[in-house]
Prior knowledge:
The protein is an all-alpha fold.
Amino acid sequence: MTLEEKIMEDLKVAMKAQDKASMRGLRAVKSALLLLKTDGSGNEITPEREIQLLQKLVKQRRESIAIFEKENRTDLAEVEKEEVAVIEKYLPEALSAEDLEKFIQALILSSGASSVKDMGKVIGLASKELAGKADGRAISDMVKKCLAAL
């Protein structure tokens, strides 16, 4: 079952249950998938692109939450938090900090990286292998920490 099919099924369930938060989040994902399909690039929608799309949606909402909280608009921040919770259900489970550190250390050993100068190479490899399991900032911070410890 593709992500689009899962979203459609879950949207039907949310509509029957009149779950407004789920409906908002699922409609946002459905809309983003539709835009991705019709963007004219001709690229097929792979599971990797779906994960990137979901991560982008979550990131946008987290940025909005930060802005709303800064402006003391907790009502709007709460709406965004509900949507983040719905969208995150469709992302793969994130790695814990310990697991991420172990993975990065193993990657540094296997790639032969020896200093902070190799940071770009390690981040590129890690980002490719950890797509959807860790966000870019967490990967970057962990690579920097591990390379600095060498």
